Amino acid sequence: MRLLKKYTGLSIVVIVNMAIQFLFQWYVLTYIGVGTETDVLFGTMAIPQFILLVLSGSLTLVLVPLFSSLSGEAFKQTGWDITQIVGLSFIALAFIMFITAKWCIKFLLPGFTGQSYQLAIELFSIQLIAMVLSSLLSIVWSLHNAKENYYKMEITSIAAGVIAVVVLHFSFKQLGIYAAAWASVLRVLLQFLLLCRILGPYKRLHIHSGNIIYTRKKLRPLILGNMYYKTGALADQYLSSTSKKGDLTLLSLAQQIYTAINSIAVKVIVNTMVPILAKAYTNKEKEKFQQIFYQRLIVALLLSVLVTMGLLFFGKWLLGIVFVFKKIDLSDVSNFWWIMVILSGFFSGGILGSVISSAFYAKGDTKTPTRINTILFTIYLPLKFLAFSLYGITGLAISISTYYILNVVVQFIFFQKSRFA
């Protein structure tokens, strides 16, 4: 109870933030409908998001424990060093992806042809800008996380989200689906500008500093592993782009809703845990480390059960109220609810897995969770293609849930055998 009371205020602002992000997606879907244009929008999001998951996501896991141990000049110098390295790397990557866009779309989203293929290239190019900005945002997020500035992060995100929704509303009639892509760019840009002051005055790049070498060492196994097993997200888009019209949108939206709810849990339960665990491990405070870890794991488990039960009993009714509007009908809502039910393991496995893997990262162990994910993904990937070929989008959703739940079980077994378990 004390844990819940302590983070009630943070939970409220995180929920408001999630509601603003949901409003953005709702606006696009209800005014355009579930169809080809939304399939293209969500499909082209997948490729930049994959790059962010592999590189930027890995960075966050390593940087929060690192920045938690730094202060003063070392904190700001390391922040500027990593921001410059990451920024330049992502700009170069975005340029390469821009000039090869037509081949990327053909290879990764084979279901898009004709006009949908041309639209995919255009939206993909816009979202590369968001990818670069998001990579920079992940650095300042890590800095603020290390300083436990959780409220500031959420409030600035809410402000940026509100502005993006307003811009989307007033530009939608003129730009259509392009308005959604550009509003997404604006949202990320505003968040970065509102949070980047933590870096302080500009500092020249010290590429061979001790902290950069440490970060590179810790990142190597994460990036190599993520580059492999995070391709599951691309496989989802590849397969669903060949399914019937609207399936890609519904699957992607279900995953995004679960990811948004998961982000609430991660921000309140996991992100607030990592700096404390990192310090407890450094100070060899075994009892404190264990107490915090198991408390957060139990809270995550209760939340996953609560969300799943709520979806089963009230989900279809609630989704009907929210989405039956203009160009979305009851059949779309029914299909959407069914996909969300099957994908519930994606949410439960995601939140529980975040707690366990973050405990590994707090100890500086990036290899164990990476090895587990790599081995399980090798077994899982061909089964995903088989499930889709047999049962379509339903089989794909079942395979995703199964993978996430199995991943949690295996990670927990290995964590129990590790130091400070």
Spatial shape: globular
Contiguous low-pLDDT stretches (5 residues minimum) are: none
Rg is 21 Å
The termini sit apart by: 23 Å
Report helical residue fraction: over 70%
Proportion in β-strands: under 5%
Decide which structural class fits the backbone. Answer: mainly alpha
On the 0 to 100 scale, the average pLDDT is 84
Q: Count all strands and give the number.
A: 0
Largest sheet: none
| Total of DSSP H or I helical runs spanning 4+ residues | 16
Number of domains: 1
Order of helices and strands: HHHHHHHHHHHHHHHH
Note down, in words, how this protein is organized:
The structure is a single chain. By secondary structure, the protein is mostly helical. The protein has one domain. Helices cover 85% and strands 0% of the residues. It starts with a helix and ends in a 5-residue tail after the last helix.
